[in-house]
Amino acid sequence: MIFVGLARSTFLGQDPDEGFYTVSYGEGVVKDSAYSLVLRDDQKKAQDFADSYNYGESPANRMKITDKIQVSVAFSPRNERQPAGVVSAVGGDKGTKLEASPQAKKIGGLTNDPYWTLGVDTEHNLPFSP
């Protein structure tokens, strides 16, 4: 099983740092080395979030939603519905065989129980017109 999320790019006022607000997500099951999942670009959800944030804010500080989306794909050996064979193949629930991957991410590095996951983020243009 993998997690897939779709987020809209946001900017707060004049801050040059970009943020992302997740508008859709789900879990896909890998079958025959492939997966698929249909996500909906819930632009109304993104606009409602921005409208809530912007309530009472001056125009200079308001959140803006852009035409850019981010698609995130992640795998975790600790997903409770992960098939046992998959968990075993990645080195158990610590995901030790994932460490060498360029997409590896260490979770809980400052705890007594760290583990490895995989994650990839890609960005694409998709017009925003709620």
Summarize the structure.
By secondary structure, the protein is mostly beta strands.
What does this structure look like?
The protein has 130 residues and is mainly beta. Helix content is 14%, strand content 38%. The chain is built from two helices and five strands, in the order ββαβαββ. Strands 2-1-3-5-4 form a five-stranded antiparallel β-sheet. β4 (104-107) and β5 form a beta hairpin. The radius of gyration is 18 Å and the shape is elongated. The mean pLDDT is 92.
Topology diagram in text:
Layout: E1 2-12, E2 19-28, H1 43-54, E3 63-75, H2 84-89, E4 104-107, E5 115-125
Antiparallel strand pairs: 1-2, 1-3, 3-5, 4-5
Put simply, the count of helices is 2
Task: Give the mean pLDDT.
Answer: 92
- Report the sheet-strand fraction: 35-45%
**Low-confidence spans: pLDDT under 50, at least 5 residues?**
none
The level of helicity is 10-25%
- How can the largest sheet be summarized? 5 strands, antiparallel
What class would the helix/strand composition place it in? mainly beta
- Count of distinct strands: 5
Give the helices and strands as they follow along the chain: EEHEHEE
Q: Could you tell me the radius of gyration in angstroms?
A: 18 Å
Principal-axis shape = elongated
- Give the distance, in angstroms, between the N- and C-terminal Cα atoms: 31 Å
Structure characteristics:
130 residues; mainly beta; five-stranded antiparallel sheet; 5 strands
